[in-house]
Structure prediction request, 573 residues.
Amino acid sequence: MTEASAQAVGEGPVALTDGIHLVVDALKLNEVKTIYGVVGIPVTDLARLAQAEGIRFIGFRHESNAAHAAAAAGFLTGKPGICLTVSGPGFLNGLVGLANATTNCFPMVQISGSSERHIVDLQRGDYEELDQLAAAKNFAKAAYRIHRAEDIGRGIARALRTAAAGRPGGVYLDVPAAVLGEIIAAAKGEESLWQVTDLAPRQLPAPEAVDRAIDLLAAAHRPLIVLGKGAAYARADAQLKEFIETTGIPYVPMSMAKGLLPDDHPQSAATARSLALRRADVVMLVGARLNWLLSHGDAPTWNPDAKFIQVDIAAAELDSNQPIAAPLVGDIGSVLDALIERGKPGRITAPQDWRDELKERTDVNVAKMAERMAAAETAHPMKFLGALRSIRDVLAEHPEAYVVNEGANALDLTRNAVGMRVPRHRLDSGTWGVMGIGMGYAIAAAVETGAPVVAIEGDSAFGFSGMELETITRYRLPVTTVVLNNGGVYRGDDPSASSDPAPTYLSARHDLMIEAFGGTGYRAATPGETAAALRRAIGAGRPALVDCVIDPSDGTESGRIGHLNPKGLAGNR
Ligand code: ADP
Ligand code: TZD
Prediction:
């Protein structure tokens, strides 16, 4: 406990402390720098004290966004992001972010106040009554409750450790109001706190597992590496580059792995993705799961005879979809060290004809994309690709900028159109395909890094967290939001079946929204206006929003994943 906090509680014959001070002291001891949250009973004083003690408190308008921010902070820093919520509904609002963090394997801890146990558990009807621990268990990597002030240090250490070690995820920590208010001797409190040593210990693969993978890669005719966001999270950038470049194996980055190597790297098969997946005979997954985003490893997307090597920290992930011929369980840095060390120079080389085949397809697809973008340049009203070409060019002037991206068409098209050159600079809807991460992720990126952030948003996607524009302006963050506004969910030109607007229809001037909070709004109807506005906004380093007027007829239903819509009788229409 700090001197300041001892005095705050009062220096008597025996110095005292309370639960609130112990939470703050424990977080400080574990070097927590920022808390993202919403205050109210019973955590308002906790936020005040944290701020007074030098922890930055970023106050949100909705807990879902605060929780998304904490998750993004976890991804960006490699240490659990902290979210603070009030009991009952506030807790429940945060749970989407906690579940999303768990789904994406980002480390975060949601600390929530909760109501009186003896009332909640008999369901006598308390203020904001909810059995939060039971609810959180379903949506988190783990959920814990602290019952005594003397256990606060233990609870926080346990939560931080669980969130970060092994496969990272979201952890819920329940701190009832009574525990926050509990008074104990300061000395006893201080003794009860500890700092977690080596938050996410390295995990080394067994040598025989490494050799098995090397044998497979050495015998491959068409080897391929798939980089996932686990590889970005692992921060093994140098080893990845060395392994990929010395073996010559082509690679495909998943969206948040873009930039681990620059997108224009000669070995990137991103623009020949379908061919690469369909033809590869040995596939090494590095921090990427064979989930829906990779068609579960099934034919016809994949070669049915392909053999998989999987590098992952979570052994239970292996064989979840396809037989894994060479499991490599460990942290990616350690696994790559071992692969580099045990693979004798020249043992693994990607055959030239395979590299040429992919290169040929890449050249064709790059040319096609350039043509489509050039055609969009002059289209009026503006098309997605017209706006994105300008955004791409301006972002190329700012490789330090973080890109946040959500929507359907806005997500799919931006992913392909906007190249990344720096690791961990792209954050998007991720594994869950969730809308609403936009402003929370953008705020965390700005707060954690101080770099400019550009959030490229579908107009529907933006609405889920749009009120956080006020948070962005209140904290004067260098965030520019670009809304690709085609007036609807997916598209803005659906016919309505009644006198009400169509279910997909939306209508908003988002540039006026940010003006209400003191930020700068731009409206851009052409690619030229888009470029000029974005350039000015990033240059100014202040909160801004560019509302891009996009042709309502541009875009497809559900973007690239329209096939997931149930057909039913509509299929016969
Ligand atoms: P993507 O969506 O980009 O394909 P996923 O989220 O599906 O990526 O996969 C990330 C994987 O990375 C998870 O299975 C997770 O267990 C794993 N992972 C996360 N951090 C590490 C690490 N440091 N070392 C090894 N594997 C990791
Ligand atoms: N709610 C949540 C939390 N997540 C979701 N994914 C959805 C709803 C459904 N949904 C999508 O999958 S994309 C999307 C919704 C509502 C928005 C698409 O419209 P947009 O993007 O304006 O954001 P485009 O560029 O117009 O396609």
User: Anything to note?
Assistant: The first strand starts at residue 16 and ends at 18. The pocket of TZD (ligand 2) is lined by residues 407-410, 433-436, 458-461, 484, 486, 489-490, 555, 559 (CB under 6 Å). DSSP finds 23 helices and 19 strands in the chain. The mean pLDDT is 96.
